[in-house]
Structures are given as structure tokens and as C-alpha cells.
């Protein structure tokens, strides 16, 4: 269960609803009224000088000071462990039971974008902006990381197959790569078909051979990741329009999927697009017509930061709103219904409301994915424009020369008169 870099993020395992915002990690207990666990990266352990020297020797940045902002965090499948990485290149490992405590702080070579625990909870895999994946031991929490594999472009997502056999990575260059975990240099398959960066990955445990992916091209795709075969593709823009949702022209051009989550049984899937006040729900079943079937579309009163399913299959949506931090949806026979009287919702909302000052700086921030789009240049139009300008310049120059040649005192006329004069004198002398 992985959360990629975002303005504010949420993840749920067991009784803990964990959020990250700015340089803080905040864990609220769903079922008990207790003070949330708050971790402040700005007050965390500083990098020792010897580690700085070692980092420089591995090609990392030297004296660059980070902002301590949380870039990504993840929870293990059982909820026993949590980890985060921040802008100061920390990798912090927590144990959550019987109570939250930090058990190690390690350092990565470059800033990370995504991280995930193995299902066996013995390793933590970290993907970074340079395209590399490192593995860190959970059993030996002070052991340094080991380089596992690399891409040629920025990594945006990482996950593992439910049997821990494959490492699945997604990058800015539209590729999804499936590598053998024990021998990462062995590539099992590529899942190719997106036309923009791949920003979300999700494997449902109960459908262990299927992978869901989301992209900046506004599509959600379903794959058999072991073979690289695309099973289904859904264009979210068309789907939203069919629901009657208005999409302005700017958003329709850049409609990036920011999050895909599933219930524990893998039956229900929720998809969120960045900075868009709506969530699309699907049912995932073994159907010949198409395993991924659209169902409800939830229109939200405020822009969502993130979302997650809890162990009961309820959908928690984190909003950019102080008075309504969370919305909670439950699936019924009539579809997905918003709960307003839930005691769990009240418990979490009250706990986080006391810490709203941590969230305020992230309200209204610009999209985190928009800078990943490739810039397209119309080379033909640019060439024709430059060609026209050159032709106009040449015409102007030629016109100037012709006008100068018509003058009585032009150098050409003077030369011609002088030559003719010389010729006449010679002729008279010869006669």
C-alpha cells in the first residue's frame, strides 16, 4: 500500500487512518478517542557528516538542504510497519504496535517519489527521481540500502505482486516495467500503451495477476502484468462526460489520474483525478465483456486531496476543507452512500480538526503532476514562420539596393562614367 508524492495524502490499515501533509505524518485511530500520533520531519534526526561524505561519493547532492516535506509514505499489509521519505532524503521506519514509535532513520541517495513494503514485510523498496530502486531491510532497520534496478527516466510509482515475485515500476516515459524481484536485471514484461506519464499503480490481492494503472493521458488500464497484455482501457474524460460532469477545455487536455485504490477483497475500485472534485467507482469482476465496470460517480463539495478504503470496505475521502476534513462512503444496495452520522467519522474528524493548522499551507496548492507533461512543439509551423521572416528580410534588402542604385550620385553610376571617360581618351590618342 503506497502513497506517492502529493499535497496531502491518506492511507488506512487496521484501526489507523494515516495522513501526511507538509513535513508531518499524523496517525489517527478510527475506533478509539485518543490523541493522534504526530511525527515532525523538521525535528527529526539530522544527517551525520560521515553520511554526507558517503552520499557525495555515490553521486548524490552534496550540501543541498531539503525542506523536510514528506514526499511519500506507505504502510505494510498488516499495519505493523509504516515508512516515510522526505525532501531532506530521510527514510524513516516506524513500528505501529503496540504503539507508534520510530525505529530507524536512514538516508537515501536521491529524493524519492514512491515506496512500498514487500508483502512478507521483510523489505522496503524505494523509487527515486533519477529512476533507481533501492531495497532496505525491515528486519535489520539500520542496514543501508541496496541498489536493485534502474530506469532511464523519473520513477513515479512502485508496487509488488502479491506473491512478492515481481517488482512493478512506472516512469515518466509512459512505461510500466515488470522485473523479477530476486533477479531485478531480468525483465519479465513491459506493459505499454499509455501515452503520458504513468502516475498510479495498484494490484488487488484477490486478483493477483491483474494490475491497474492510471496516467496523465486520463485513462485507467487493466493489465495481465506477467505477460504485459492489456485487458481493458477506460477513458475517464469520456466517462465523466457521459455522467453529465462538466469538464473545461483546459482540464480536458491535462486530466491526470492521481490515485487508484481497491477494497481488501479487490472487488471495488476507486479512481481519483488530480484537482478534480469527483471520484469514479468501479466493480472488478471476472467478466468476459470487461472485468472493470463503471458504477457510481461521486460528486464532491470540495477538491479532494486523497482517498483510501478501510478494512470494512468504506471509502474515506480527504478534503481541502476545515469544516469537513473527511467524507465517508459506504456501499449499499442502492450504491455508494455518504455517511454523516458515523461515530468513526466523528472520532477522526475531531482528532484531525485539532491539527488543522498542519494542513492549511497545502490548501489550494497547484497540481503536482502538471509539470510532468511533455512539451509538444509544432516544428513545421515554426519552420514556416522563420522561412517567411527570412524571405521578407531578403525582399527588404533587395528593395533597398534597387532604390540606392537609382540615385544620380550612386557609386555604380560614378564608376560607369569614369570608365567610359577613360575609354574615350584612349580612342582619340590612337587615331
What does this structure look like?
Strands 1-6-7-8-9 form a 5-stranded antiparallel beta sheet, with no helix packed on it. β4 and β5 form a beta hairpin. Helices cover 18% and strands 39% of the residues. It is globular. The chain has one domain: Methylamine Dehydrogenase, Chain H. The chain contains 6 helices and 29 strands.
What is the element layout, followed by pairings?
Layout: E1 2-3, E2 8-13, E3 16-21, E4 24-29, E5 37-40, H1 49-57, E6 70-75, E7 81-86, E8 90-95, E9 101-107, E10 112-117, E11 123-128, E12 132-137, E13 146-150, E14 155-160, E15 166-171, E16 175-180, E17 187-192, E18 198-202, E19 210-215, E20 219-224, E21 229-235, H2 236-242, H3 249-253, E22 257-262, E23 268-273, E24 278-284, E25 292-299, E26 304-309, E27 315-319, E28 326-332, E29 335-339, H4 343-353, H5 379-405, H6 411-430
Antiparallel strand pairs: 1-6, 2-3, 3-4, 4-5, 6-7, 7-8, 8-9, 10-11, 11-12, 12-13, 14-15, 15-16, 16-17, 18-19, 19-20, 20-21, 22-23, 23-24, 24-25, 26-27, 27-28, 28-29
Amino acid at each position: 500500500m503506497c502513497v506517492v508524492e502529493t499535497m496531502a495524502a491518506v492511507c488506512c490499515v487496521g484501526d489507523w487512518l494515516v495522513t501526511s501533509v507538509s513535513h508531518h505524518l499524523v496517525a489517527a485511530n478510527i475506533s478509539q478517542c485518543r490523541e493522534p500520533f504526530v511525527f515532525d520531519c523538521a525535528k527529526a534526526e539530522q544527517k551525520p557528516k560521515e553520511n554526507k561524505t558517503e552520499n557525495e561519493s555515490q553521486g548524490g547532492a552534496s550540501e543541498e538542504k531539503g525542506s523536510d516535506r514528506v514526499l511519500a509514505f506507505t504502510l505494510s499489509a498488516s499495519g505493523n510497519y509504516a515508512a516515510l521519505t522526505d525532501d531532506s532524503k530521510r527514510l524513516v521506519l516506524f513500528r505501529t504496535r503496540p504503539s507508534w514509535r520510530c525505529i530507524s532513520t536512514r538516508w537515501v541517495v536521491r529524493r524519492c517519489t514512491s515506496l512500498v513494503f514487500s508483502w512478507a514485510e521483510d523489505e522496503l523498496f524505494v523509487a527515486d527521481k533519477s529512476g533507481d530502486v533501492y531495497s532496505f531491510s525491515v528486519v535489520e532497520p539500520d542496514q543501508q540500502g541496496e541498489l536493485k534496478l534502474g530506469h532511464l527516466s523519473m520513477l513515479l510509482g512502485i508496487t509488488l505482486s502479491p506473491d512478492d515475485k515481481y517488482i512493478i515500476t512506472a516512469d515518466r516515459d509512459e512505461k510500466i516495467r515488470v522485473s523479477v524481484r530476486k533477479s531485478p536485471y531480468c525483465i519479465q514484461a513491459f506493459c505499454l500503451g499509455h501515452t503520458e506519464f504513468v502516475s498510479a499503480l495498484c494490484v488487488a490481492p484477490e486478483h493477483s495477476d491483474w494490475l491497474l494503472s492510471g496516467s496523465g493521458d486520463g485513462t485507467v488500464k487493466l493489465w495481465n502484468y506477467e505477460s504485459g497484455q492489456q485487458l481493458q482501457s477506460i477513458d475517464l474524460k469520456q466517462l465523466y462526460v457521459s455522467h453529465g460532469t462538466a469538464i473545461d477545455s483546459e482540464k480536458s487536455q491535462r486530466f491526470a489520474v492521481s490515485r487508484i485504490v481497491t477494497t481488501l477483497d479487490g472487488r471495488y475500485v476507486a479512481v481519483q483525478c488530480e484537482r478534480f472534485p469527483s471520484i469514479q467507482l468501479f466493480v472488478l469482476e471476472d467478466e468476459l465483456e470487461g472485468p472493470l465496470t463503471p458504477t457510481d460517480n461521486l460528486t464532491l463539495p470540495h477538491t479532494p486531496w486523497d482517498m483510501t478504503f478501510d478494512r470494512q470496505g468504506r471509502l474515506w475521502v480527504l478534503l481541502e476543507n476545515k469544516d469537513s476534513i473527511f467524507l465517508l462512503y459506504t456501499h449499499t444496495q442502492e450504491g455508494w452512500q455518504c455517511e454523516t452520522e458515523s461515530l468513526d467519522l466523528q472520532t477522526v474528524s475531531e482528532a484531525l480538526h485539532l491539527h488543522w493548522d498542519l494542513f492549511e499551507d497545502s490548501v489550494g496548492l497547484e497540481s503536482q503532476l502538471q509539470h510532468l507533461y511533455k512539451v509538444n512543439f509544432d516544428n513545421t509551423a515554426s519552420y514556416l514562420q522563420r522561412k517567411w521572416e527570412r524571405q521578407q528580410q531578403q525582399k527588404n534588402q533587395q528593395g533597398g539596393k534597387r532604390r540606392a542604385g537609382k540615385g544620380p550620385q550612386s557609386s555604380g553610376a560614378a564608376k560607369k562614367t569614369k570608365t567610359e571617360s577613360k575609354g574615350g581618351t584612349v580612342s582619340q590618342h590612337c587615331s
